[in-house]
Amino acid sequence: METSPVDVMRLAAQESGRANRLVHRAREARMAGDRMPTAPRAEIGASWDRVLRSGIDPEQTTHSALLELDEVEHRRRSSALGEVMPLLSDGLASIADASQQIMVVTDVEGRVLWRQGNTGVLRLADNICLAEGAAWSEAITGTNAIGTALASRAPVQVHSAEHFVRSLHGWTCAAAPVRDPRDGRLMGIVDISGPASTFHPTTLALVGSVARLAESEIRNRHMQSIDRLRSVAAPMLCRLGGRALAVDSNGWLAAVTGMPPVDRLPLPKSLQPGRVWLPSLGMCRVEPLPGGWLVQVADGAMDSPPRRVVLDLSLARGLAVNVVSPVGTWTQRLSPRHAELLYALALHPEGRTASELAEDLFGDPTRTVTVRAEISRLRRHLAEVLAHRPYRFGEGVEVEVIRPEHPGDLLPRSKAPVVVAARSAS
Predict the structure, then answer these.
(1) Helices (H), 142-198
(2) Which backbone phi and psi does 204 adopt, to 5 degrees?
(3) Residue 327's pLDDT is what?
(4) Nearest CA to 120 among 145, 90, 99?
(5) Which segments within 156-261 are labelled E, that is strand?
(6) 157, CA 20 to 30 Å: which among 29, 191, 338, 391?
């Protein structure tokens, strides 16, 4: 006997309801610390574990303090996703509207910057604070597609009782991360959300495809802007002697002469025309170009090294190195590993071999490959400060270390022997 479309839809609804009841029972057991009757999907189970460790109450609301409108506007202007919003609107918002859902776009913190779609669902979204300026990271709102995609850096669909907070059980959502195609850094999240009754298994594939399309558009726009800058800068570089390069406002290379090419030149946040010290090149003369900068390396007498380095380890969340150059001071934020390395070098002005640094950091002198890789990363920004053979601060560079008020607070999460010894020395 042939099955009618109505029968197929009824069977699908029954199957979906049964699956949701199983997830609901699994969630209740997990909240109570009991054995789950059935395991949730791996990405959902991992999210529940993270959220439980964070101490979020499953009975809490999803309301958060909204960003001020001017802050939302600032973040929109600062995000490259704003350039592709027309594409996202064409690719997702119209579909979301027709399917009784909404499209949501967030920044890397999970803050909602844009939302579009069905008017009725937008009003419903206000009730759960899925509004512009709201926070939807896992640490704030528990398991949800936006926050879980942020945490896992992967596309994810979260349906009904898979949400950690009970007030979201009437919703379904699918989200995918958008990465900067130039360097792979996360730019934000694209999401489709709606009432649980609008669930469809292909929604996640749709969101993922549109996110990749947005990345492709950003890549194309970047290449076009670099080509325009190159057409202006290349004739100028041909007439220059010495080392010079043209970069866009974010430091991406357009043209170079007299030196090996680099993918990206680290630039100060507030770059101004004139003489400036760039940590990877030394003293330079910078001139504005349409869409970027012309950077001439000042070889010879002007190319003097920085005189002083201040390694600031006073705050565990604010690790930094401050370099006093002939024309001013610049600061480089540090990862905990790089802070450990620079601290070890500061303790040994005579220098350290790779095996000695491996002993300092890992208690294992054989881990030289890791040490060399980390030193190489550091030298991308501190080439004029760090020397090698052996590894050390440069000749004539004065080094100061700012330690926490209490020695026990020095890099508190570090297990490096050189740091552990310093914490216990007092």
Answers:
(1) 145-152
(2) -65, -40
(3) 47
(4) 99
(5) 156-159, 171-179, 186-195, 244-248, 253-257
(6) 29
